[in-house]
Amino acid sequence: MEYKLITMPIEPAKILSHFSVPKKEYVFEPINNGLINDTYLVLTTNKPAYILQRINNNVFKNVAGVMQNIETALHVLKSKNYSSVAVVKTKKDTSYHKENGFWRVLSYIDNSTTYNTTKSNNIAFEAGRIVGEFHSLLSSEDVVNYQDTIPDFHNLIHRNNQFFDALEKAKKERTAAAKDAIEFAEELLPDLLDFCFTELPIRVCHNDTKLNNILFSKTTDKALCLIDLDTLMKGYFYYDFGDAVRTIVNTAPEDEKDLSKITFSEDLFTSFVDGLITHNSILTKEEIASLPQGTVFMPFIHGLRALTDFLQNDAYYKVAYPNQNLDRCVSLFEFSKKALDKVDYMNAILKKKFSQ
Predict the structure, then answer these.
(1) Average pLDDT estimate for 145-158
(2) For residue 58, how many C-alpha atoms fall within 13 Å in the half-sphere facing its CB?
(3) Cα–Cα distances in angstroms (integers) from residue 233 to residues 61, 70, 72, 206, 343, in the given order
(4) What confidence score (pLDDT) does residue 2 get?
(5) What is the signed CA dihedral for 16, 22, 25, 30, rounded to 10 degrees?
(6) 30 - beta bridge partners?
(7) Which of 111, 174, 257, 339 is the most exposed, fewest CB within 10 Å of its CB?
């Protein structure tokens, strides 16, 4: 599922010439698996050297705020267990260049890779460990120093209002096609809206910790760092926990149409938590107690956004076929159902692990 972006003619070499990189012959390879930004792998002598990206300012309207948040966080996202990317400055010493959009250059971490899904307990453990390391390094940061670059991004009250507004205005054929999804949303919303009023610490969060936003070593499978930091801003820890879990314990793609393939692997969940508890001191008891419901919350809010966009005739996301938003919504809601069935299990595991 991709965000709509107005395309313009792009000359990557010309854009790169505005950044402080050595004068060399560079080759540019488009990377097409990103959902938001236009991305190029920049190579020299057949080796990756940089990542060149055009930031989607239809989604991130405050580009300066996005880059300020990233640079502020990168000052502290440094440790022997965390290999952070770096922002390459322009020749004018700015973090981005404006020309046919907003462009930035990031360093490339050699010998790295990502995974969309996994069946490996080690990958799940490493994902938990690096999410814990990320939050541990940021735990002393003052959230006042971070801008809300997408206001109300995970605010369910806001998404609830958008949903019912879209439902009221939707075409009859769309509401008929989405009947079951609409009923599920209306059934679960009251409980999750109550959950939103739980008082928890506000932290600097990644806010999009799906598995393919974690970089791993190709040789050792050790998690290196979190990437795609555009959504880095204030939030609750269960945002990052729930987003990671929904893409780690489910071995099917997030747009899987065959609902029988959508899983909740207890082994992968336990491995993820085992990795996370290597940094167990960062969480309060209230935060730990919120995590099972957060695992229901995150796929639900993503599904609600997809459902809302379907009812709005696909105004926000790119779609490859007419019902793609609805299919994604149904898949995400199915995982929410699976997570609901596992709440007692998750509570038991978390209580056991965090008391050790």
Answers:
(1) 95
(2) 14
(3) 14, 9, 11, 7, 27
(4) 40
(5) -40
(6) 40
(7) 111
CB 266 within 8 A of CB 251: no
Q: Is 134 exposed, middle or buried (0-12, 13-18, 19+ CB in 10 A)?
A: buried
**Cβ pair 70, 230 in contact under 8 A:** yes
- Specify the 3-state DSSP secondary structure of 53: strand
250 SS3 class: coil
Task: Please report the DSSP string for 64-131 in residue order.
Answer: HHHHHHHHHHHTT--BTTB----EEPBTTS-S-EESSSEEEEEE--TTEE--SS---HHHHHHHHHHH
Q: 81 is written with which tokens?
A: 């267990």
- Going by DSSP bridges, is the β-strand pair 38-44/27-31 parallel, antiparallel, or unpaired? antiparallel
- Counting beta carbons within 10 angstroms of the beta carbon of residue 80, is it exposed (0 to 12), middle (13 to 18) or buried (19 or more)? exposed
d(C-alpha 260, C-alpha 243), whole Å: 21
Identify which of 305, 311, 308 has the alpha carbon closest to the alpha carbon of residue 175. 311
**pLDDT, mean of residues 243-264:** 92
Q: In the chain, pLDDT over 70 holds for what percent of residues?
A: 96
Task: Tell which wins on pLDDT, 2 or 209.
Answer: 209
pTM to 2 decimal places: 0.93
Residue 149 has pLDDT above 60, yes or no: yes
